[in-house]
Structures are given as C-alpha cells and as structure tokens.
Amino acid sequence: MSVLGEQASSYILNFAVWDLTKIGLLVFLGLYLIFALLVVRQVQLLTSVLGTNFSPLFKTVAMLHVLLAVGVFLFALVIL
Amino acid sequence: MTKNGLLAAFVERPQKVRFETQTHDEEVVLLLRRHWFTNLSWIALVSIMTVVPLFVFKLNLLSQSEAIRAIPLRFQLVGTLVWYILTLGFAFESFVMWYFNVFLVTDRRIVDIDFWGLLHKSVSETPLHNVQDVTHEVGGFWRVIFNFGNLYIQTASEVPRIDFKDIPKPDLAHKKIAQMIQDHGRVRT
C-alpha cells in the first residue's frame, strides 16, 4: 500500500472510531435519560407509600438529576 | 439516633411521617431503618468513583501518557461528565433505597415496607395482637461494636414472620415492641 493509501486508511479508521464512540455515548446518555425519568417515577411511588418531611427534597433531587442528564446529553450532542 | 433527621435509623414517635395504609387516628410509634454501617460499601464505592477521574488526569499530567492524549479533549470532557452523572445516579439510588426501606411500629400494627429494583415494592404487616414471639440477635464483630442486629417477629397472620434486618439497637426495639404488645392487651414475648 502506498503512503497515501496508508494515510487515507488511517484517517478513515480514526474517523470511524470517534464517530462510533460518539454514537455509543449518545445512545448511552439517551438510555440514562430514560433511567433518570424512571427514578423520578420511583421517587413519586416511594413518597406516596412513605411520606416524610424530606419527601420534597427527594423529588427535587430526582428532577435535578433529570435536568443534569438532559444537560449532559445536549452538551455531548453539541460538542462531539 | 432518635431525632427525625435525614440520616436517622431509629426514630421514636417520628413527626410528619405518613404511610400508604395508615388510618387517620393511627400513630407511628417507632420507625426503623438499617444501621448506617450497612451503607458503607456503596459510600466507599461512590468515594472511589469520585476521585478516579482526578487521579486519571493527575497521572496524565505526570506521565504525559500517549494513550490518554490520543483521546480528543471533547471526548475526555464528555466522558468525565458521564462518569460523574453515573456516580450521582448510583449514590442517589442507593440512598433512596436505604431511606425508604423502613420498619414501622404503630399503636396497632407492625409494618415492613420493602422496595427493590426501580419500581417494585412489598408491604407486609401484622396487627400487634397477632404477634406471637419477638426475638432479636446481635452477632459478629461490627454488629457488636456498633450495636445493630436483627429482630424477628413471629406472627399468627398470613405472613408468618417479619424480619427487621440490621436495625440499630435491636434490644431497645425489642423492649419497646414487647411493651406495646403488653399495652395492647396480650403478652406473648
């Protein structure tokens, strides 16, 4: 293989690796977002079964967790 | 700890605690959770997960590792954020599971609320007059040091035995439950 050919294959390989990594990360973050939404539902269920004076705190943290998951997903979508 | 704080595992007459099947004139007398010591494994894991990226970056700076430098900066940044959000999710989920898995003793019954997985729950209960036997055990080095153990409540209900695992001060919980059963009109402990 010529030098040019080697450079081209190396470029394609490099491009494919990072492109695939990007897709993998975005799919993972998408799944994580679903998990974060499930956690919100779980906290709703838990606080309905056992209500304490800390119930609003748990709901707030669960919502913040979703917002963080959305933020990281969008950040990854833009920056990668 | 008897105060109704976020980390309390042995709370007498907790304020502002309501459970799903509680009647309006029923009072929660005792709320028990697993001893804080049982949380150490996940707390240690979260602590390690928190410092791992710091060590990786420190090592990278010291060794100028080719392997890490080959990763584009934007991927390193997103990878770190993903790592930390995973750590946060794991810590929150672990804490929530500890906080909401409780044993309640009301002035009428004993309730064991268990959650597992993301959306599964199980609630077992028995009226105080159905309690036939109460046993507690404290065994093992850490249990003796920190005074936590198991409390077994044998019942005449459909649920033959309710287990309170790894609760703090099982002897005191035993005493209080026995007293309540006595007050309730039947002594079988």
Question: What brief labels describe this structure?
Answer:
heterodimer; A: mainly alpha; 2 helices; B: about 190 residues; alpha+beta; five-stranded antiparallel sheet; 9 strands
Care to give the gist of this entry?
Chain A has two helices and one strand. Chain A has 80 residues and is mostly helical.
Task: List the topology elements.
The complex is a heterodimer of chains A (80) and B (189).
Chain A: H1 3-49, E1 50-51, H2 55-79
Helix pairs in contact in A: 1-2
Chain B: E1 10-12, E2 18-19, E3 28-32, H1 40-63, H2 66-69, H3 73-100, E4 102-106, E5 109-116, E6 120-127, E7 131-137, H4 141-146, E8 148-155, E9 161-168, H5 170-184
Antiparallel strand pairs in B: 1-3, 3-4, 4-5, 5-6, 7-8, 8-9
Helix pairs in contact in B: 1-3
Number of E-type strands of chain A? 1
Shape of chain A: rod-shaped
Class per helix and strand makeup of chain B:
alpha+beta
Helix content of chain A: over 70%
What integer is the average pLDDT of chain A?
89
Shape of chain B: elongated
The main pleated sheet of chain A reads as:
none
Structural class of chain A comes to mainly alpha
Strand order of the largest sheet of chain B: 1-3-4-5-6
Q: State the helix count of chain A.
A: 2
Our Rg estimate of chain A from Cα atoms comes to: 21 Å
State which percent range the strand residues of chain B make up.
25-35%
Total count of strands of chain B: 9
**Tally the helices of chain B: what do you get?**
5
Give the integer mean of the pLDDT values of chain B.
Answer: 89
Q: Tell me the Rg of chain B in angstroms.
A: 22 Å
Main sheet attributes: strand count, strand direction, barrel closure of chain B:
5 strands, antiparallel
* Quaternary state of the chains: heterodimer
Instruction: Please write the string of helix (H) and strand (E) elements of chain B.
Output: EEEHHHEEEEHEEH
Kindly state the percentage of residues in helix of chain B: 40-55%
